[in-house]
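REQUEST FORM: STRUCTURE PREDICTION
Request ID: SP-0412
Submitted by: Lab K.M.
Chain count: 1
Length (residues): 457
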Amino acid sequence: MQARYKYSPMLAALLLAPAISQALDSAPATLSGTPLTAPAATKLPIAELLAPKAAAKPAPGVVLNEDAFRETDVWGRIRTGYAIPDLNNELVQKHVAWHAARPDHMARTGARASRYLFYVVTELEKRGMPTELALLPFIESAFNPQALSSANAAGMWQFVPGTGRDYNLKQNAFKDDRRSVMASTDAALSYLQRLYDMFGDWQLALAAYNWGEGNVQKAVKRNQAAGKPIDFDTLSQQMPAETRNYVPKLQAVKNIVANPAQYALHLPAIDNSPYFTAIDKTSDIDLTVAAQLAELSVDEFKALNPQFNRPVIVGGEQTQILLPKENAEKFNLNLAQWGRALSSWTVHKITSARERIDTLAKRFQTTPEVIRQANNIPQKSVLKAGSTILVPKTSSSLNLNITPEIADNATVSFEADRGAGKSRYQRAKGGDVKDAPVALVKARVSRDAAGKKSKQN
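STATUS: Completed
RESULT:
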């Protein structure tokens, strides 16, 4: 994927411009709870069921032209490329009314989207896809790349782990590309295009994105066999409530973006020009150091680089960090004058079946809490053999980088430390709770009950 470019009003330069506008807000998002389902292993003969639609090519309504690039903001550019047939039913009106009654929600989500929309729209136009698909993260994640649903769907486009792997989204102890702005967008658009090629209908493709292509295929076959229509409105009667509302939700946002004043809503201005640029990083760098060199807060840095889930960014030929253009210039200037180690972390592989955190902390001259926080290890747990964890560098590892091979294969596994909750009496005797005096058993039960109650509250 091309990552470094400069904006020009010329069409050719814009086609190479994967960039986004700066956000004005970082409020948490409300998830739709919608995971992407893994593609079915075998495709049904859907083309026969949908003839002649199955032979259709991607909608031509997004033909790239100079008019799209004369728009002064990204919202106008999105409107220019609308190409999915409109849906008009009671559910659409319901969701339009919901958004119209919550101007603060639209303003917050729109401001958050301003980090990413330019890049997403550019990628859609390069593929000749309808630009209203850029609004889909409004429904999936409220444009929060850190979003995680109860079904373990992550990122702006809400990929579950299996589907993420199907679309080459790397997931390991150091990074999760389901959250990557560029990688997840590329994967989501590839998946949507595949669904459109399968169904020849964007509304059904969207339903499959939410419900799973196999379920939509079965619904189409049932209607086909019964001589019923196979459009979204008709098929939605067979769909679960979430999917039945999914396409109407997107249509509602599409209607609002088309004419926000009609609903007394205001969309934050997003300049129709690139915002971020990508910097190659071949050596390890601490996330806090990268933010410092770019003169950004850690939160601002993470907003563009949400895929990194450890305090160190492992360098390599494929590693890039995204920065606003002016901050990229500051980064390069400050880096040239830095003169210190860029990373303070290295890796350690656990070989003992029950290596304790406090023992590791003493060995690497740090505290147990530092190791737990760096590796997301819960309290009262021990690491399993085979885990690869981050530890502070020592004098012998100051100049060593973590290899991409280690990062790609690193896993962290832990289990409850059954000895952590035992009293000194129990540990001395080597017994379990049942062997302790009655008073100790009561105290233990009381503490556990209080802990559960606290977690529930």
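NOTES: The chain has 22 helices and eight strands.
Reviewed by: T.R.
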